[in-house]
Amino acid sequence: MAEPMIRIQGLYKIFGVAGEAVLPMVRDGMGKQELLDTHGCVLGLRDINLSVPPRCIQVVMGLSGSGKSTLIRHINRLIAPTAGEVIVDGTDVAGMDGAALRDFRRHRASMVFQRFALMPHRSVRDNVAYGLTVQGLQSAEVEKRASRWIERVGLHDFADRYPGELSGGMQQRVGLGRALATDPDILLMDEAFSALDPLIRYDMQNMLLDLQTELKKTIVFITHDLDEALRIGDNVAILRDGGMVQQGRPQDIVLTPADDYVADFVKDVNRGKLVRVESIMKPGTTCASAPAIPIGTRLERAALALSEAAAKLGKVTDRDGTALGTVSQLDLLDAMVRRRRPSP
Amino acid sequence: MAKNAWWIEFPQMERETLVAIRKALDGAYRDFSRSYGDVIEAVFEPLLYFLVWFEKLLLNAPWWSVLFAVCALAYLASRSWKIVAGAIVAFLFIGFFGMWEDTMSTMSMIAVSTLLAIALGVPVGILMARSDRTQAVVTPLLDVMQTMPAFVYLIPVVMLLGIGKVPGLLAVVIYAIPPVIRLTNLGIRLVDREVLEASDAFGASGWQRLVGVQIPLAFPTIMAGVNQTIMMALAMVVIASMIGVQGLGQPVLRSITNQYFTLGLLNGLAIVALAIIFDRVSQAYGKRLQLQYKQAQHG
Questions:
Q1: A115 to B194: CB separation less than 8 angstroms, yes or no
Q2: Which homologous superfamily is B45-297 in?
């Protein structure tokens, strides 16, 4: 695997004046409530390890209070860690001095916020241009690049309006345009679509996925919405009470939840639309007449293909048509409907 | 014997001690003003030139051009013809009753002291907003400045600089500056944290954040402070006439000493008219800004 773009190692965050002092106790396993009661400190993050490969969408999921927003703010050091490393492209963000950090934020990583955080006194155009203005570019250059991104997020007709005049979805397009305008390698999205209503959210997810096929950024996306996480994430990490519960590909999390907490989370997920056939296929071969199911097919599609061919068994093939294994109707059904318990 | 017991009469300090303390403090301040008065006067020299230049400008310009400038400013700030019409009526009344020159003097005094108060007060307010410790130190000072009887300021200022325009200006600024400081501090503290975080996330430096986000978003609140400052400056101008400040305060002072009721009333009304114009214009301006941002915050 390629060198990860973002590598978070042994990250701890304890809020409160005595943060550093109580760190050893937290390392020894003191719980969140006990820490609050005895020392008045709030445990933000506990021993987070996470690697984000370049050009992937890493989703970090958790309920409110799980520390997910705290985690994403460590990547551009809006919050400084109590202990641990946040290594982005070989450099530890936690160790940067003021100028290096500003430079990092101006050029390497930008952020999209849950409640948009647009500047009410600036027009859409000036909001999108904000990062470029901060970089100190010439106004002609700023204008050129901002216009391109205003166009790209579909706000051409609204460039001279103010954020207050736009709907939530449009405001977040401004937020996205503002983040992309500086052409960063890393896009940090803190519950970027959570404040939008479902249809608009779906549109924005599509827009993000479209942009991603073209731009290939490294995206860290925070959400509390499982469907959103599974839909857009190449990888998903699940946080609970400041600790990492599980990380992996969406289908791994659905098929083999690490514990009851995750299992509870994923119990209502439509696995037929999410899980791919290769993850449940069995080794072996079958007769040549069995219907071929190309690798990457979702379970629902595979089941449909088998029932249309009136076959009990299908062969899973790679792109060249070589058989890789078999999958049976029973396996498909089982994978789609059986309630999963965490693997022992 | 019992008459002087401590539980009947408050045990106050010896009269001689009190006199000695007062003498010592007064003497020290007098020595200070004798040795440094000239230096301090020199420091304020440019201010005096500016004040005199501005006053001459207003006095020498034809009355209709001043009226036109006032109306233009009023319209640009408030976008309201009603306020402009009110200003015209007020100034015609002032001119007709022979108070034009005093009014120009007062206006130049107000303008210069307000500018000075903004130039000093906004930075102080910004410093206060940046540090809780500064706020803890400055707030009680402002409380003292606002509650101390205005006449008390006149004494040290006169001892230091004598009577005239500059000491008057200083007294007015000291009296009028607290609101602009307080509201600058408040306005900057009220700026949305999320917007500030966004500006940090894009790598803005402290200066870029201040100029690009904090001041613009605090601006309507700062304007409310400026409005209050103008009102207080107007109130102080009358008191400052006691130390030789020209303007509408002089005839008022004369009316008090000579019991000229009508003269006092007319000049008082002129001050009221000025106050109303300044207040309506600056408030309308602040409201216009606030409306624009409010709209922006609740889409």
A1: yes
A2: MetI-like (1.10.3720.10)
